[in-house]
Specification:
Blueprint (H helix, E strand, L loop, with lengths): L2 H4 L3 H11 L1 H18 L4 E3 L11 H12 L3 E9 L3 H12 L4 E5 L7 E2 L2 E11 L3 H14 L3 E6 L5 H27 L5 H18 L6 E3 H30 L4 H30 L6 H22 L1 H7 L1 H6 L10 H9 L1 H20 L3 E2 L12 H13 L3 E8 L3 H12 L4 E5 L5 E3 L2 E2 L3 E2 L1 H8 L3 H14 L3 H6 L6 E2 H13 L7 H21 L4 E8 L6 H14 L9 E3 L1 H35 L3 H24 L3 E2 H29 L5 H33 L3 H31 L1 H6 L39 E2 L4 E4 L4 E5 L2 E5 L13 E4 L5 H13 L8
Parallel strand pairs: 1-7, 8-17
Antiparallel strand pairs: 2-5, 2-6, 3-5, 4-5, 9-15, 9-16, 10-15, 11-12, 13-14, 18-21, 19-22, 20-21
Helix pairs in contact: 2-10, 3-8, 7-9, 7-27, 8-9, 8-11, 9-10, 9-11, 9-27, 10-11, 10-24, 10-26, 14-27, 15-25, 15-28, 18-19, 21-22, 24-25, 24-26, 25-26, 25-28, 26-27, 26-28, 27-28
């Protein structure tokens, strides 16, 4: 093989290697897929959305304190309908006897019994995920099975398992829809297994490598596979169509090599806009955007890898089947639509601009929600139905935990009183406000005499106990100075007495011992929840929605009250409203950041691709207008939109839907050089329709399926917004974009620019038959068969198929097919002589003689 053969293009070398070594790639994919099927079980999934808040947020700091110092027992709100109050009391007693249930609150007041419905507030003996709590929940459900019962609780509820089941249903339905769409847009029935196997391999590899990140969110784990299919199916379709075109003039192997060599740079460039939009998500302060962004970017990478390395082998394998199962095209021509678009171009653009202005205005008025419970889904699971039913009758519970430095019971009591004075607070409690006996609260300090009178214990015995407590507390001065005035918090003394009884130091009679055991059990549970080593927890129930400006303002009020007694940096609020407040504050930053970065990244890619300032502006206007119209719908319907849907879908819609606009603008740029603008628009829409419809229908249907089937609010919002946005984008690029391209053609051409090419490198002399692809500067002697665009200094004698010779700045310029005014084939002899010296002509002839030796063909 000659040196020229060794210098052939990189992509041709790569394509040849992939096609010729396809069996090796098949083996590698089989091994990789087996590994990934196993490794999917290694993926750790986080189902707590607050875990992705910034470490600097109040919620995150509060959660850290709770995890380190306090115990949060599982709870449940249980409503039983169509019963009497007597039955309610009986059920409360039976529920309380269930092992694993710590307490049940029920009475005949309207807070717990109304309209023949009883509400039970149940506290479990373990945390939400503890086995004892889950077993108690199972037993409680069995007890209430004969009744019309609604249970709202996180105990026994697995978000990951529920979402996994729902997404399996969604994926099955999506695959069926995708199969039908691909069947309608295919040219051969055997194309379908090639496409589905290519994507299936990419999806399995992406899922099997998520363990690389250690832990991913439930959002990424659930929607990534469907969004990967919707975002990346185009890549396989592009390679398939190129292969079919090349197969018409080449054998199977050569067609596959040429198609792959041409498709690799084209598909890679196309993927950049999608990756750009996803990359913008990774800059969000709310780290779930980063989580979903990197998972989807990895998904795009594996989609590209499977298209470039697996699909060529599958095309070779199914080549005969593809030929034998060809069928007529099911896609209709849409020439009539193209004529309508061209005819209405002026009024259409005017209407579009009005719609964009309106979309921008109403999207700014979009009502955002930051709480799960404020987000409505098309379907609801049993827990969500129970929550709605209970809140309709008994109202919602909005609990706020106030974490303050521990040890100062007087300040805690004063803060609780201050909070209870507000109309927005229905109740507030803490250890300092819980009544124990005879009007004393748990944190009241009792002297030996007061404790003896309250418990009916012998005063001398109580004095001994107080003396022992003083020794244990190293308060020796109290013993010397007298115990009569020594005050000890009631909760501390009760627990100390309990310990002395357990150690055999103090003996109590049976009845008093049983009462002490029961009381201390409740006290220890209360202390685990409300008092840690460094912090105490106060609880306030608000008569406010979880997610509103009024609620957020009142959280600031709570802070001001607490800061009267404690340092500002030592007070933390926790609860659904607090996390919503933190999310709202992060949204203000993330919204601007994602919107700007997604546009900037996409514009950079478009500028490099089209080398025009005007064209990217038109494309961005169409897609950004579609985004504004998409998010004006919640404002017009007065439906709260979970903020995360806006952030993520903005990036996805900009990065993915811009591809539709690129397809149309590319076809138009090519066709307008060969025909009138009207015919170019008609042909552009006809040629672009299959691509836009295939990708758009798949993405829209996948998104809407997610939104309609899942009961998880975040995932549902993502699906609805992606589906609705894709439909709007499809309409805009098939209707408005062609009109903008026609009317803005002058702007596009006037703003074109060139990118300085690198210095050309002398390659030396090559002799023989050669294939040249690139910018050449130098002398050529021989027969040329090529499309040329440039300036020739010298003598040209050639036959031109398409094109003309034009004079530019006193020089003759040969124009290729893109500068021809006609698409008809012509033949024209061009003979141009420059005023070169005879010596120069002789030198050229001498060079021709020296290069007459044949070389190898490239």
């Amino acid at each position: 093989m000659s040196s020229v053969r060794n210098e052939k293009k990189f992509f041709e070398k790569l394509a040849t290697f992939i096609v010729d070594k396809r069996n090796l790639f098949f083996f590698l994919y089989i091994v990789m897929l087996i590994f990934c099927v196993i490794s999917t079980g290694w993926v750790s999934v986080c189902n707590d959305i607050t875990a992705y808040l910034s470490d600097e947020t109040e919620t995150k700091k509060g959660l850290k304190i709770v995890e380190e110092e306090l115990t949060m027992y599982g709870t449940a709100r249980v409503m039983v309908s169509n019963i009497t109050a007597d039955i309610g009391e009986s059920l409360a007693e039976q529920i309380g006897e269930i092992e694993g249930v710590s307490s049940v609150t029920f009475d005949r007041s309207e807070e717990h019994f109304k309209e023949s419905s009883a509400l039970f507030d149940v506290t479990f003996a373990g945390e939400t995920a503890d086995e004892i709590s889950e077993e108690a929940m199972v037993e409680m459900k069995a007890l209430l099975e004969p009744y019309t019962a609604y249970i709202n609780s996180d105990v026994g509820y697995s978000l990951v398992d529920m979402v996994a089941y729902e997404m399996l249903v969604i994926l099955i339905v999506a695959v069926i829809i995708i199969f039908l769409v691909l069947l309608m847009t295919s040219r051969s029935y055997a194309e379908l297994p090639v496409l589905l196997m290519t994507f299936g391999a990419a999806a399995v590899m992406n899922m099997g490598t998520n363990y690389w990140f250690g832990e991913i969110s439930f959002v990424s784990n659930s929607v990534a596979v469907v969004l990967q299919l919707a975002l990346a199916i185009d890549y396989a379709i592009i390679l398939l169509h190129r292969y079919i075109e090349e197969k018409a003039t080449h054998d199977t192997r050569e067609a596959c090599i040429i198609a792959l060599a041409n498709a690799i740079p084209a598909i890679s460039s196309s993927s950049l806009t999608t990756i750009s939009g996803l990359l913008a998500m990774t800059f969000m302060q709310f780290k779930i955007g980063y989580d979903l962004g990197i998972v989807l970017i990895k998904a795009i990478f594996f989609s590209l890898l499977s298209v470039f390395t697996l699909m060529p082998g599958l095309l070779m394998l199914f080549a005969n089947a593809i030929e034998k199962t060809k069928h007529r095209s099911f896609i209709p021509r849409i020439d009539a639509w193209g004529r309508f678009v061209y005819k209405t171009r002026r009024i259409g653009v005017c209407v579009f601009l009005l719609l964009v202005a309106g979309g921008f205005y109403f999207s700014m008025k979009c009502p955002f929600s930051y709480s799960y419970n404020s987000t409505v889904t098309a379907r609801m699971n049993d827990s969500q139905v129970a929550r709605v039913k209970i809140e309709e009758l008994f109202g919602a519970q909005n609990m706020i935990a106030v974490l303050v430095p521990g040890g100062d019971y007087e300040s805690e009591k004063a803060l609780i009183r201050q909070l209870e004075a507000y109309d927005e607070v229905t109740s507030a409690m803490g250890l300092a406000s819980i009544e124990a006996m005879d009007g004393y609260t748990l944190t009241d300090k009792l002297t030996p005499r007061q404790f003896s009178e309250m418990t009916d214990m012998d005063y001398e015995v109580v004095q001994l106990i107080y003396a022992a407590y003083a020794v244990n507390d190293e308060s020796y001065g109290k013993i010397i100075g007298g115990l009569d005035s020594y005050g000890v918090p009631l909760i501390d003394m009760f627990l100390f007495v309990y310990d002395q009884v357990q150690d055999g130091v103090v003996t109590l009679d049976g009845e008093m011992g049983n009462e002490l055991d029961e009381m201390c059990s409740q006290l220890m549970n209360a202390k685990k929840q409300m008092q840690g080593e460094n912090y105490s927890c106060l609880v306030a129930y608000l008569d406010l929605p979880e997610d509103s400006e009024e609620t957020f303002a009142f959280l600031d009020t709570i802070h001001r009250e607490a800061e009267k007694y404690y340092d500002a940096d030592q007070v933390y609020l926790m609860g659904n409203s607090t996390s919503a407040y933190d999310l709202a504050k992060s949204f203000e930053r993330d919204n601007i950041l994602v919107s700007v970065l997604s546009i900037v990244f996409v514009i950079i890619v478009l500028l490099i691709t089209f080398r025009s300032v005007g064209l990217p502006v038109l494309l961005i206007l169409v897609i950004q207008g579609s985004i504004w119209l998409n998010f004006s719908v919640p404002a017009l319907t007065d439906t709260p939109l979970f903020f995360l849907g806006y952030l993520i879908v903005t990036a996805i819609q900009m990065g993915a839907n811009i591809d539709y606009a690129i397809v149309i603008s590319t076809w138009y740029a090519e066709l307008k050089e060969k025909m009138s603008k009207k015919e170019a628009i008609i042909q552009t829409l006809t040629l672009s329709f299959p691509t836009v419809m295939t990708s758009g229908v798949i993405m829209a249907s996948s998104g809407l399926l997610i939104g309609m089937i899942t009961t998880e609010p975040v995932i549902s919002v993502l699906g609805v917004c992606v589906g609705r946005g894709t439909v709007i984008s499809m309409v805009m690029v098939m209707l408005i974009l062609p009109q903008l391209l026609v009317l803005g053609d002058a702007l596009v051409e006037k703003t074109r620019f060139s990118i300085k090419t690198p210095e050309l490198v002398r390659t030396g002399k090559n002799v023989g038959t050669m294939f040249v692809n690139g910018h050449v500067r130098g002398k050529i002697s021989g027969v040329v068969d090529a499309n040329m665009y440039g300036v020739i200094h010298g003598e040209v004698s050639a036959m031109m198929d398409i094109g003309a010779v034009s004079e530019e700045n006193g020089q003759k310029k040969t124009a290729g097919p893109q500068e021809s005014d006609s698409a008809d084939r012509t033949q024209e002899t061009v003979h141009q002589k420059e005023q070169d010296s005879a010596a120069q002509q002789q030198e050229q002839c001498g060079a021709a003689k020296r290069q007459s030796k044949e070389g190898d063909r490239l």
